[in-house]
Amino acid sequence: MDSPDLSLPQRPAVPGAPAVRPAPPEPEPDYSDPRLYVNRELSLLQFQWRVFDEARDPANPLLERVKFLSIVASNLDEFFMIRVAGLEQQLAAGLAETSLDGLTPSEQLAAIRRETLRLSQELTRCLHDELVPQLAAAGVNLLDWPQLKENQLAAARAWFDELVFPVLTPLAFDPGRPFPHISNLSLNLAVVVRDGGVERFARIKVPDTLPRLVPLGRAGRGEDGAVHPHTYVWLEQLIAANVDRLFPGLEIMGVHPFHVTRDAEMLIQEMEAADLLASIERGVRERRFGSVVRLVVTPSIPAGVRELLVENLGVDPRDVYAVEAPLALAGLSALSSVDRPDLRFPAFVPARPPRVGEDEEEEDVFAAIRRRDLLLHHPFHSFTPVVDFLRAAARDPQVLAIKQTLYRVGRNSPVVEALLEASQNRKQVAVLVELKARFDEESNIGWAKALEAEGVHVIYGLLGLKTHSKIALVVRREGERLARYVHLSTGNYNAVTATAYTDLGFFTADPEIGEDATQLFNYLTGYSRGATFRKLLVAPLDLRQRLLELIDREVSHARAGRGGHLVFKVNAVVEREMIEVLMRAARAGVRIDLLVRGVCSLRPGLPGLTDRIRVTSIVGRFLEHSRIFWFRNAGAEEVYLGSADLMHRNLVRRVEVLFPVTDPELVRYLRDDVLETYLKDNVRARRMRPDGTYERLSPRPGEPAVDSQAELIARRAELLERRTVRRVPGA
């Protein structure tokens, strides 16, 4: 990826012509100008549109398109719970701080309302007009109640009687009974009944313990007489059609679905919390009771019912969104259990990378790491070597200690099981469990308690900082010395997400990185304000400063005519100082490629300012999660991997780690097989325009189509084939 010569060609001098005076330098731009930036919240919504594009893309298998649609709906829920809630809090507190692009909180909320309503309506339109008819043609039927035939009605009513009716609890609202609490993300039915001459209101919560899509089983027989086993009706429609069973003797006047989203940010006063674990547990419980930031109803809801909900939920009328049913489309994830592999992406088996996989029968994992650094590229490479590493450490009598950070590990975690086994085998085990990992607090609390019960030293993080770094350190006795083995990663120690997120894991026995890892854990578990690191870049200590120095080095190369080129692959670019530094570098002649999955507040392509900067977003089968920082360094290239994005929270308010990869073969893999493949993508890539919108790339005439994730899957298949050939006896 050598940087091309970006300078303009020089005209030859004309004999006798007067000397041409050099043009005066252009004035330095005002980097505080709001026109240079894209609003963070609107950029995040642009990302949701890019994910939605995958739901609309007919090249994707049908059930995968449904999954993408449900992901957008779920992302919007989280967007309101966190980002919109934060703006609402600013507004309520009377704060008028403007965003990078100069918008006040109220102006941002107004823009968000317009964009999210448009997106929500498009999601519903796509479901009704595209996905449901195409699913039906493929034999997967999502039926509305009026579409059910007699045998299907009978099956649905039997299902209601047996499994739904006993679970439902109608809650009345009248002078003797207060308005019921509506929990966060709950789907509900507002029921209006007439008792004599008086109309009354009741609420029924659609149980989230039951399938959102009710299977009709063999009753799903079509007009052709064939059985269609994948036939479903919406749970809320089943309840609404049988709601008279809950109000015997009363006249049902109307049943109207509504969906509530609440503020889910937990303000944890760490300085006052004697027990952080108890504080987090309390915060998780109280999350259900945050203020309402969004109320979604159907357009047909009567004005009186709408006003009743607005008044009793304390919601701003501007935060009411009218969208056609079905609401809460995140529930479409229920179709993930449908056994139709023909409607999904082709399955593939992750490879074991050559250095871990070829000799695993002859040498243990520690010998493999001693021999050379190892790199795993998930999900194309298996996560199994990570689990094997920890299990080997748990069982090896020469291993004395294991130290690890856990951010999101999920349920039924083989990683935690290995740590528990290590403690049972009398190893010294210390684990930092980040309780403040948003929406994983409850799971992490459970694992923290399980680890403590087994005698593991459990730490809950540093005061005021969230520990986001992913690192494991194994200390092993080898003869007369102690050796340290380190695993570092861009992703979580979660065996499930490792099959769906692109991440990079790294094993090393480098003594300097081992020493740095020890210093890091001392910093995390004890009192170590003077921690210094030889190779690791650690936030909030020195990561920001070292990144600035590495960028400035590229500027020096560019000014000296040696070329300057940066390629950063991250999830987000929003930090003001970093954006300004990148703009200055581009003006100095540094070529900059930013692979940014989600939010990007930097406007590329502005003449004379950011026209040497390209911003590309890859959205596809896997969630792009790895962070890579590549510096050309005049040909002596350097590359760092890690957990940090270019965000203020990552650089200042979190413990983050970037780690160097120096093995030439691994550097070539990261440059040529990973970054270059992404930069050549013209199928899943979207290029950011100067106005903050994105255009989807497509192959030019005569240009081959490059789908980066498909390319990486294909190369994994080639690797498996080569290994299989080599293992054939006599080959």
Keywords, separated by commas or semicolons:
single chain; about 725 residues; alpha/beta; polyphosphate kinase like; Endonuclease, Chain A; 3 domains; 10-stranded mixed sheet; 8-stranded mixed sheet; globular; disordered N terminus; disordered C terminus
Rounded Rg = 29 Å
Number of strands: 27
Q: Based on Cα principal axes, name the global outline.
A: globular
Q: Compute the number of helices.
A: 18
Number of spatially distinct domains:
3
Helix vs. strand class: alpha/beta
Q: What is the top-level CATH class of the largest domain?
A: Alpha Beta
Q: Characterize the largest beta sheet: strand count, sense, and whether it forms a barrel.
A: 10 strands, mixed
CATH architecture of the largest domain: 2-Layer Sandwich
Low-confidence stretches: 2-20, 266-274, 283-288, 723-731
Produce the secondary structure layout:
Elements: H1 40-56, H2 62-92, H3 105-137, E1 140-143, H4 150-164, E2 171-173, E3 187-195, E4 198-205, E5 213-215, E6 230-234, H5 235-241, E7 251-262, H6 276-286, E8 292-297, H7 303-313, E9 320-322, H8 354-357, H9 365-371, E10 374-378, H10 384-395, E11 399-406, H11 414-424, E12 428-433, H12 441-453, E13 457-459, E14 466-467, E15 470-478, E16 481-489, E17 501-508, H13 511-525, E18 537-539, H14 543-559, E19 565-570, H15 576-587, E20 591-596, E21 613-618, E22 623-624, E23 627-631, E24 638-642, H16 648-652, E25 654-661, H17 664-680, E26 685-688, E27 694-696, H18 708-727
Parallel strand pairs: 1-6, 8-9, 11-12, 12-13, 14-25, 17-22, 19-20, 20-21
Antiparallel strand pairs: 2-4, 3-4, 3-7, 5-6, 7-8, 10-17, 11-15, 15-16, 16-17, 18-25, 19-23, 21-26, 23-24, 24-25, 26-27
